[in-house]
Design brief:
heterodimer; A: 286 residues; alpha+beta; 9 helices; elongated; B: 236 residues; alpha/beta; 4-stranded antiparallel β-sheet
Chain lengths: 286, 236
């Protein structure tokens, strides 16, 4: 193990440019991945926030009787997906409108606004299907004149989220593959540069594991370093965006660790694949 | 006297170039010194490759140090290699390491304890007469000196047999003689030596057993130098 680490260090010392190139390319692949991840988590938090505002509003007929409203409220309370309900009487609707639309205070003098029932759904029940189903159910009450909900909004948001999810998986996979290929080819170069040494190692009785270990450690360390740099770059990007454009969220500590670890895994996989293939070739020619 | 190495009807064919060895059978005893002689292309290098299990015979069986070419597993090959010392015509030293680092390499690679490596390397370099040039790089050494480093490296893991593939092929007469004497000395201490060469004069002087290969066939196994001389002249 100590010898393997020394070999890694020597390899770095012998070809610092190559090693830096490897780390940088891994960092950039993971950075691209990280950027996408950031976009994803920010969309997700935006969605959560907007979702929180998804509400259904049932406007009541003019002159709705208290008993009718009561019946409606009781019916709504029986729907399990409903988080909370509120009744807005015609008077309070008017007051609210006046408060919110200060400029039109005069216009609203003596105006009649319909009463309404506002309800918010529980988290997890805010998908377009549920919203639609509940709206239809409300529509069956005679006291309800019209049901409104941000239908298009809800549907659009969900579509964005689905697209983001698919694009994330696709791009993530592509970037991961690129990282593996890049690490693989830096290892390949390292192996080709040391063909003679490997040949001699084999002849004096080094085991396969012994020959492989330095390359695997090499790849893993480069992956980890690349991951760390990528995390740093992503963080810098978030800072930049937050300062100049809009507040953006950064990954939490677990996600950062996961990203760096993913770099290590990519490095290990890349070097593993490359070492296996190229050592076999070197040995065949020896 | 026990056999440490035995070939039984060994043949080796390559897909493109055809038969390199045909039906070879011989045995080598513990501590023996044997020459392997023949023109280039006669199969000497192929035979040495088979002995280090770098390649397997197409047919027949090769037994060496308790391993059979028919049953050895890939992960056992490193174990076998540690019991063999291999010396090359082109030395195969690592150019960016000193003489002692080149020798130490063979020990490090087998996971030898660190504390044992330095004294052992010093002892090996003394044995091959290079103690004073331990810190020299290969390019600072003469051909003969480089081959001494190669031999010290081959001896690092205390092999029971030294396989030398034309170790003097790149050396002048004086260096050739010195290397030969060194190999004899090593042999006298109990290590068997199989030395490939086409230096007939050396074989003639030493009066040792030799195996003569010709076009992949073993045409002589013994000490009949007169016959060898006739053969070599006849084919020239």
């Amino acid at each position: 193990m100590r010898l393997a680490l020394r070999e890694v260090f020597l390899a770095f010392k012998r070809a610092p440019l190559l090693a830096m190139l490897g780390i940088t390319t891994i960092a950039f692949s993971l950075f691209a991945f990280g950027l996408f991840g950031l976009v994803a988590i920010n969309i997700k938090s935006a969605l959560l926030e907007i979702e929180d505002r998804v509400e259904i509003r049932a406007f009541l007929i003019e002159g709705a009787k208290d008993a009718q409203v009561e019946e409606l409220m009781q019916g709504i309370n029986k729907i399990p997906q409903v988080a909370d309900v509120g009744y807005v009487s015609p008077d309070s609707a008017l007051q609210r409108a006046r408060a919110e639309l200060e400029e039109f205070r005069d216009v609203m003098e003596g105006a009649m606004l319909p009463g309404s029932v506002e309800l918010r759904l529980k988290e997890g029940a805010r998908d377009p299907e549920t919203v639609q189903a509940i709206s239809r159910r409300l529509q069956t009450y005679p006291v309800v004149e019209e049901v409104r909900y941000g239908r298009e909004w809800v549907e659009k948001l969900y579509r964005i989220r689905n697209i983001a999810g698919i694009a994330g998986s696709v791009l993530g996979t592509v970037f991961a593959l690129v990282a593996i290929i890049i690490i693989g080819s830096t290892i390949r170069m390292a192996i080709l540069a040391r063909t003679k040494e490997i040949e001699i190692m084999r002849l004096v009785g080094a085991t396969n594991t012994f020959v492989r270990l330095p390359y695997l450690i090499d790849g893993t360390l480069k992956g980890l370093a690349g991951g760390a740099i990528a995390a740093l770059l992503s963080w810098a990007t978030v800072q930049l965006v937050s300062k100049n454009l809009m507040t953006a969220q950064f990954f939490n500590a677990d996600q950062v660790m996961l990203g760096i670890a993913a770099g290590g895994v990519l490095g290990l996989v890349g070097s593993w694949l490359s070492v296996g293939r190229h050592l076999r070739r070197v040995w065949r020619d020896a | 006297m026990s056999g440490i190495l035995r070939l039984t009807n060994v043949s080796k064919e390559y897909p493109r170039s055809g038969a390199a060895l045909r039906d070879i059978s011989f045995e080598m005893r513990k501590g023996e010194f044997v020459f392997l002689v023949g023109h280039s292309g006669a199969g000497k290098s192929t035979l040495l490759k088979l002995l280090s299990m770098a390649e397997r015979p197409t047919t027949g069986e090769l037994r060496i140090s308790g391993f059979s070419s028919q049953s050895i597993k890939p992960r056992e090959i490193p174990i076998l290699r540690r019991r063999l010392g291999i010396v090359f015509q082109d030395f195969r030293l690592l150019p960016d390491r000193t003489a002692e680092q080149n020798v130490a390499f063979a020990l490090e690679v087998t996971g030898a304890p660190h504390a044992q490596i330095r004294p052992k390397v010093a002892r090996l370099l003394t044995q091959v007469g290079l103690a004073s040039k331990a810190t020299a790089f290969p390019h600072e050494l003469s051909g003969g000196e480089q081959q001494r480093v190669g031999i010290a490296r081959a001896l690092a893991n205390d092999p029971f047999v030294l396989l030398a593939d034309e170790p003097t092929g790149n050396l002048d007469d004086r260096a050739t003689h010195a290397i030969f004497l060194l190999l004899r000395e090593i042999n006298a201490q109990g290590t068997a030596v199989l030395m490939a060469t086409h230096d007939v004069a050396m074989i003639q002087r030493s009066n040792l057993r030799f195996l003569e290969l010709d076009h992949g066939e073993l045409v002589h196994d013994g000490t009949d130098v007169a016959r060898l001389l006739a053969d070599m002249r006849g084919r020239r």
